[in-house]
Amino acid sequence: MQQTPDVLDFSQLSREAIEQTLRQYHLGLTVDEALTIQNALLKRPPTFAECVLWSIQGSEHCSYKSSRKYLKQFVTDGPHVILGPREDAGIVAVAADNLGVRYGVVVSHESHNHPSQIVPYEGAATGVGGNVRDVCCMGAEVIAVADSLRFGDIHRPKTHWIHEGVVSGIAGYGNPLGIPNLAGDVYYDTAYNENCLVTVVTLGVVREDHVIHSYAPPDADGYVFILVGKPTDNSGFGGAAFASATLKEEHQERNKGAVQEPNAFLQRHILKANYALFKILREKGLIDKVGFKDLGAGGVACASVELAEAGGYGAEVDLEQVPTGMPDLLPAVILCSETQERFMWVVPENLVELILGHYNETFALPQVSEGARAAVIGKIRTDGLYVVKYHGRELVRAQAHDVTKGIHYDRAHAARPAAAAEPSLPAPENFNDVLLRLLAHENIASRAPIYETYDKQVQGRTVVEAGWADAGVMAPFNDDRYPEEIRQVGIALSLDQNPRYNKIDAYWGAVNAVVESVRNITAAGATPLSLSDCLCFGNPEKPEQMNEFIESVRGIADACQAVSLKDYPQATLPIISGNVSLYNESSQGAIPPSPMIACLGSLPDVSRAMTYDLKRTDSLLVMVGERKDECGGSVYYQLYNELGSRVPKPDLKTFSDEIHAVHEAIQNGWVLAAHDISEGGAAAALAEMSFKNRIGVQIDIPGELAADKKLFAETGGFILEIPRDSQKDIRQLFEQRRVNAFIIGETTKEPRLKMNAVIDLPVSAARSAWENGLRERLL
User: Fold this and answer.
1) Residues of the chain with CATH 3.90.650.10
2) Could you name the CATH architecture of 612-779?
3) Is residue 9 predicted with pLDDT exceeding 90?
């Protein structure tokens, strides 16, 4: 590593010289930011360590410097919200015991895109590790992970390499932790060739009065910081700044150093130690007397300054006390390295002996992993200053709030030219062939090659695995540690986003991502409680890409505000967790606007969870939502290398009524199977419903549209299988809700798919195409 100066004085340098200096020392600052730090914030030349600290803490990844003003559109509170997106993870209440004590699901939603493009296995694995720590540090037990992945052209060898590394990394970290993978989605598109997306959701459970916060509590004068975990090394140094820069092929080797090195088995051991310590703190009535945070972006620096400043304090850190696993590390590296498997406590002096003994002796960290331990590394300051010392020298002295708030921008933005025109395709000569090609397409075919890699049943909470329902379903409180009255409560999780819709229209693409994720958990029998998001976009310094971000945020906000909560008609769907990931582009260009959405829902009785496989012959098939001429962005158009312009545009005025009607029908026991209509349209949805039990369908979708639009357009909606004796109840319910629902056909004993007199296929042929489509492309 090159020698670095103690101090960088920018005042006498030209802008070109400042820019050259920043490049020379790999500092993720602009010229104006460097001058602002020196002239406005510090009023003196910054040290090298201060420049590193601001480049990380002030990055897009940490401070949301281009996006924060737009995120204020989101509703982040509501009747079920215990904690919104203010700390390491959000929390939403899903159950209450007979005493009225609420139990929450903790949600963290993060991205690890740049690292996964450069070093797929390690990038994805450490993404899971950091996400899990975010949830654990809220005092929660981690119960599930889920992933939403975007890869490039599936026919490219590089895509196969990245795909294999990412999926193996997620499995290679999550499986050893003993955490089931509950849900996810994946999409392949050439626009992600040089910038894959790896976004992860992690869930935990915690009682409301057991939550530990990510800040120093009131009256924290005299508190100290305890660092726990792996000894600090140089892995991940500058990771947050790296994640806030455009990927450049010539920097790939250098960028590998910004990717952390994972150790899942050490993290599993630390999680066990944390859970045991949580119990001790609860028994002693000390939960509200401590703060706890994972070490992610910015390492020791960001964890310590954020813990302190969020509580209204400053902090002082002595880098000599930080355990290190390598000799001769630069002090800036010790301060800001993103070494994995680390947490930080802020606690009163009288708890130090207990906590050090707990980790170092009871759980024997030094014996479990070389150099791992818990150590006191600093203390709270009451003057609001953030001070870092090393060998008697001050490396950092700044106002803590100046460090954490970052430097914010009001970026220019401008709309892109209109999308491509709607194509004029001739009617298919062979509809059977079209359906088989759709089912075999990599963006529709079975995801079994991915989710079979993951452990899905560990912990014994999973009720519906990925693959046979639109959402994963769990019973999070199903053992005797929880009150009997909440053990049947279920939760459902879905992740969604279609990049082809976003290519056409950033606003409607975002609306569809929200609506689709909500439909998915509704089809699983749940009612929506909250959303989380990973907002992945290109370079915000380019007006057209900034505009895509702005329009996507507006679409998410509008869609959320259109969904009323069950039992709280005046409340709308809140966003409780998420992150922003910008600069997702390379020399090949930017990714499509990619608002990656996850929806969490709840079921009062998990036994009412719904799968989409048809259950009986001679039952009725009901379509909810009329078909429209909306093939823009569809896989059907993709078969012909067309994009189109008529993206699905959900009617947000009626959407809430639609999901509440479907949920009520399922909970009343009037529905046997439910599936949302999305990729591949109604034809693909019906085919997927037939596969598990090899039950046929005979349907005729009414209307004036051409047959291909009726069958393959991706206008949202539901297909419901209902018993014949539920027909009257279903009709009355949907009429009361003013929701458009109509019978389109029936299930048949003969295992054939018969649709609108143009499709007549054996279920076995359709299933074979669907089961093998992705697997064969990945060979």
Assistant:
1) 612-779
2) Alpha-Beta Complex (3.90)
3) yes
What global pTM score does this model have? 0.95
Return the bridge partners of 753, or none: 697, 761
Q: Are 405 and 622 in contact (CB under 8 A)?
A: no
Out of 26, 61, 441, 663, which one is annotated catalytic?
Answer: 61
Q: Residue 380 is inside which H or E element, if any?
A: strand 373-381
Distances (CA, A) of 6 to 12, 17, 741: 17, 18, 70
Would the annotation count 579 as a binding residue? yes
- Single out the residue of 677, 520, 539 nearest to residue 599, CA to CA: 520
| Stretch 548-567: mean pLDDT | 97
The CA distance from 559 to 540, in Å, is 23
Confidence of residue 508 (pLDDT cuts 50, 70, 90): very high
Q: Is 133 annotated as a binding residue?
A: yes
Cα distance between residue 105 and residue 606, in whole Å: 15
* Cα 284 versus chain centre, distance: 35
Q: What is the mean pLDDT of the chain?
A: 94
Mean pLDDT of 81-89: 95
Query: Per residue in 181-204, pLDDT tens?
Result: 999 999 999 999 999 999 999 999
Residue 262 pLDDT grade (very low, low, confident, very high; cuts 50, 70, 90): confident
Facing residues of 205 across strands? 105, 141
Name the H helices within 491-589: 499-504, 506-523, 543-561
Answer yes or no: is 619 a known binding residue.
no
DSSP H or E run through 681: helix 681-690
257 is in an annotated binding site: no
| Residue in this structure with the two tokens 């047959």, named with its chain if needed | 707
Closest CA to 164 of 120, 113, 200, 194: 120
What Å distances lie between residue 427 and 175, 291, 407, 636, CA to CA?
Answer: 47, 63, 55, 12
Any known ligand binding at 32? no
Q: Across the strands, what pairs with 374?
A: 228
pLDDT at 246: 54
Q: What are phi and psi of 646, to 5 degrees?
A: -90, 80
E runs forming strands in 618-740: 620-624, 673-677, 696-699, 717-722
Of these residues, 80, 109, 112, 358, which one is catalytic?
112
Beta strand pairing status for 102-111 and 197-207? antiparallel
In the beta sheet, which residues pair with residue 324? 232
CA nearest 225: which of 427, 387, 82? 387
Distance CA(548)–CA(112), nearest Å, equals 21
DSSP state of 324: B
Annotated catalytic residue 112 = yes
Q: Where are the beta strands (DSSP E) in 178-233?
A: 181-188, 197-207, 224-229
Which one, of 38, 21, 204, lies nearest residue 105 by Cα?
204
How many other C-beta atoms lie within 10 A of the C-beta of residue 700? 12
- Can you read off the two tokens belonging to residue 669? 């026991």
Q: What residues are paired with 493 via a beta bridge?
A: 472, 600
Q: Is 163 a catalytic residue?
A: no
Name the percent of the chain lying above pLDDT 90: 90
Local structure of 225: helix, strand or coil = strand
Nearest of 448, 468, 523 to residue 691 by alpha carbon = 468
DSSP strand pairing (594-603 vs 490-496): antiparallel
* Residue 417: predicted pLDDT: 82
Question: Does position 429 have pLDDT exceeding 90, yes or no?
Answer: yes
What does the pLDDT average to over 365-377? 97
Instruction: Give the integer Cα–Cα distance in Å for 463 and 483.
Output: 19
pLDDT at 243: 46
Annotated binding-site residue? 64: yes
Residue with structure tokens 């582009």? 585
The answer to whether residue 257 scores a pLDDT higher than 80 is: no
For the chain, the farthest-separated pair of C-alpha atoms sits apart, in whole angstroms, at 84
Q: Is 318 among the annotated ligand-binding positions? A: no
